[in-house]
Design brief:
- With 243 residues, the protein is an alpha/beta fold.
- Helix content is 25%, strand content 28%.
- The protein has one domain.
- It is built from three helices and twelve strands, in the order E-H-E-E-E-E-H-E-E-E-E-E-E-E-H.
- The strands form three sheets. It has a five-stranded mixed sheet with strand order 2-1-3-5-4.
């Protein structure tokens, strides 16, 4: 039996009502217990709290807020080394809160990696950062729990060396092959020879590679700083084009 982790979904937002916060926490808790936990071997609770101060000691916080400083979205660690995440309020915040919760549970300290062949030609074997929602994070691949949109996530088979049509690579089945990103998503890895953190992104018209420079622990915080603002801008652009 896995140890139980506790997530506090906290509102620091004037735009998120206590009812909406409680509904989101209930949906994410159900997603974790029914969908994510059995696949990833995770046992966790997700509870709503009206403020950071009211979240019990030892709970990992996912904080929904109105004002977000540059580079503050996504994963962080506090002074005691405990993980927390910042989510911007507004349309779709529940989907982002689901994303951050699942990634925190899969990799609480932001440095979990899996070895595999790089998707960048000629790079050889690399250490992929375990970010279970990033490759399929776009709202187009979300599904609903209790009527609330929650994030698709990849399974541990995502890192398989070869594709198999009988294998489930993400919960919804949207990811069809190992180490594959969908439009609006990305993945990150450590290239051991250079010590650099790399990414493949599909935030625009086509996929691209990006060298983030020397790796800085925790790796997920570095990846989030480099990418979250880009992803938000790309999503806003796509919504504007559709409207």
């Amino acid at each position: 039996m896995a140890l139980v982790s506790h997530i506090a979904l906290v509102s620091d937002s004037s735009r998120v009502s206590p009812t909406a916060l409680a509904q989101a926490a209930a949906a994410i808790a159900k997603q974790v217990a029914r969908d994510f936990g059995p696949i990833w071997g995770v046992n966790a609770t997700v509870s709503a709290f009206p403020s950071v101060a009211e979240a019990p000691v030892g709970y990992w916080r996912v904080i929904v807020t109105d004002q977000v400083a540059a580079g503050a979205l996504g994963y962080h660690q506090d002074a005691n080394g405990q993980p927390y995440a910042i989510v911007k309020s507004g349309t779709g915040w529940q989907l982002t809160a689901s994303h951050e919760t699942l990634e925190m549970l899969a990799d609480p300290f932001g440095n979990r990696t899996v070895a595999g062949q790089s998707v960048k030609p000629g790079q050889g074997r690399v250490e992929y950062l375990v970010e279970v929602c990033d490759p399929c994070e776009a709202s187009a691949y979300a599904y609903t729990v209790n009527g609330i949109a929650v994030s698709d996530f990849y399974t541990p088979r995502f890192f398989d060396p070869q594709a198999n049509t009988a294998t489930r690579y993400s919960f919804t089945g949207a990811v069809k092959a190992p180490r594959t990103i969908l439009r609006g998503g990305y993945m990150s890895w450590l290239e051991p020879r250079s010590g650099h953190l790399w990414q493949q992104l599909w935030l625009g018209a086509r996929k691209e590679f990006r060298d983030l420079g020397p790796a800085d622990a925790p790796l997920r915080a570095q990846a989030d700083r480099a990418t979250r603002a880009d992803a938000v801008r790309a999503l806003a652009t796509r919504r504007t084009r559709r409207s």
